[in-house]
Amino acid sequence: MEINVIHNIDCISGLKLLPDNSVDCCVTSPPYYALRDYGTDGQIGLETTPEFYVEKLTEVFIQVYRVLKPEGTLWLNIGDSYAGSNKGKGCKLNSNKYLQPTASNVGNVINTCNLAGYKPKDLIGIPFMLAFALRSAGWYLRQDIIWAKPNPMPESVTDRCTKSHEYIFLLSKSRKYYFDAKSIEEIANYDGRFKATRKASKKYSAGDYNLQEKQTMQIREQNRWRSNAEGDFIRNKRDVWFVPTKPLKEEHFAAFPEALIKDCILAGCPENGIVLDCFMGSGTTAIAARKLYRNYIGFELNQKYCKIAENRLKNELGMFL
């Protein structure tokens, strides 16, 4: 299959065209459960139950598992959904389900109600339902990364806090896998810690103080605190990522920001490797991959979004496309 192309095809069919062990990593964000109707036959996200939705996605990621190299990783961005409260107007999904617009977005936004096993207003728990299903399917569930949004969409609810985070799950095909931690190191300011250490040491004897200084030097020697070329302290990237959402002028409401997935690609895929996105949407994964000197393979069921993604690639990459 041709690389650096977004293929207008459903992800299962596209994945079946890829050979085993051919992709370095997968960075993707599937349609969230019962939040939008994209108006495309065969779309994932409008299943009648959360369990069926998780089952469908598990089928997709079993194929992703097959096409990944043994050292490959999956970076999976997934949000949660609430069981509806049977209030407000909505369009009918089937005989006993209604899709209700929420105040948190625009367009064909939906919500569910009358779900068996879920009370009205229940948080369904989709992210971990999916993560545990993938773990049972053979994936190594390595980490839950929190995408903390400094600028979340405001909500009118008065009986809970405004939701301002989503999950990115890091899953691997094997126990040992490619992970370039150095490429995503972050600057750390330890001045406050040093000051606190010295302040606390005043109540100890000189011997205790010297012991503290010695322990600090030992930690430095063990490379836990490292310096970059500019002399800044650096540390391993932490698992809470503060990345603001970024609206697109194009008509795709669920695009994740390029800054969010940059580190997924840097850590998960070597240069000139292949990044797979089986739910390409507006093309953010493709754009980020090419900017970072990686190749991509994308699948997108909705032809309209394929065109949006292609236009974005041309506009942002131009002659380097």
Q: How does this structure look, described?
A:
The protein has 321 residues and is of the alpha/beta class. Helices cover 30% and strands 20% of the residues. The protein contains 8 helices and 13 strands. The strands form 3 sheets. Strands 1-13-12-2-3-7-6-11 form an 8-stranded mixed β-sheet. Strands 8-10-9 form a 3-stranded antiparallel β-sheet, with no helix packed on it. A hairpin with a 5-residue loop joins strand 9 and strand 10 (233-235). The longest helix has 18 residues, at 50-67. The chain is globular. The two termini are 18 Å apart. The model is unreliable at 88-111 and 194-202 (pLDDT under 50).
Short précis:
This protein is of the alpha/beta class.
SSE topology sketch:
Layout: E1 5-7, H1 11-16, E2 23-28, H2 50-67, E3 68-78, E4 91-94, E5 97-99, H3 126-136, E6 140-148, E7 165-172, E8 186-188, H4 191-201, H5 206-221, E9 226-227, E10 233-235, E11 240-242, H6 258-268, E12 274-277, H7 284-291, E13 295-299, H8 303-317
Parallel strand pairs: 1-13, 2-3, 2-12, 6-11, 12-13
Antiparallel strand pairs: 3-7, 4-5, 6-7, 8-10, 9-10
Helix pairs in contact: 2-3, 6-7, 7-8
